[in-house]
Design brief:
By secondary structure, the chain is of the alpha+beta class. It has two domains: 76 residues, no CATH class; 96 residues, Gcn5-related N-acetyltransferase (GNAT) (Aminopeptidase). 41% of the residues lie in helices and 22% in strands. It contains six helices and eight strands, in the order H-H-H-E-E-H-E-E-E-E-E-H-E-H. Strands 3, 4, 5, 6, 7 and 8 form a six-stranded mixed β-sheet that branches. The chain has a two-stranded antiparallel ribbon with strand order 1-2. Helix 1 crosses helix 3 and helix 3 packs antiparallel against helix 4. The chain is elongated, with a radius of gyration of 21 Å.
């Protein structure tokens, strides 16, 4: 039954790049996918032989689903940013930092790397990375807010982005209280 619940999750996760579902919508889509699988007579789950659904305890499947949805929701709700760590300097003008967004129990959900040039008053977001499991659930916004809180005096920019990330950054810039620029390389040091 665990394999079926996981398969429904993986199928729903595979749609995230195109669907961009939030936490509640993702849980509902996962639930629908699981219901569809459990309504089948037999299933083919990668790594398993053919599974006859009638032979399974479907109540266990729904219990596993409920527990997984709750755990995922709790991880997202209680995620927090770790303190920034200074990386070894590459240049006298700029400082490189990194921090992680973690769930309770110190499980890392994503990582953020950035560069700061204090003389120019500029911050460069180098990389923000979350596995597909943790995308489209507000953690990227949490990470960007942390940059602004930690360095409120800076104007921020990002490097060229993939098409789906550009939309995220544009939406964030419009809601942000800190200045963000679309200009590339506003500082000669970063």
């Amino acid at each position: 039954m665990q394999a079926i619940v996981r398969e429904a999750y993986q199928q729903t996760l595979a749609e995230q790049d195109s669907e961009h579902r939030g936490v509640a919508a993702f849980a509902q889509a996962w639930r629908s996918r699981l219901a569809s699988l459990l309504d089948s007579q037999t299933l083919e789950v990668p790594g398993w032989s053919q599974i006859t659904v009638a032979d399974l305890d479907t109540d266990l499947g729904w219990s596993l689903y409920a527990a997984a949805v709750t755990a995922r929701s709790q991880a997202i709700t209680h995620a927090s940013a770790q303190p920034s760590r200074l990386s070894p300097p590459r240049d006298a003008q700029t400082s490189f930092y990194e921090f992680s967004i973690v769930a309770p129990g110190e499980h890392a959900l994503g990582h953020i790397r950035y560069e700061v040039c204090e003389p120019c008053g500029v911050g460069l977001l180098l990389k923000i990375s979350f596995s597909p499991d943790w995308q489209f659930c507000g953690l990227g916004t949490l990470a960007l807010r942390q940059l602004e809180i930690r360095h409120p005096q800076l104007t921020w920019y990002t490097t060229g982005q993939y098409a789906h990330a550009k939309g995220f950054y544009q939406r964030y810039r419009h809601r942000s209280v800190s200045p963000w620029t679309e200009r590339q390389n506003p500082c000669p040091h970063t």
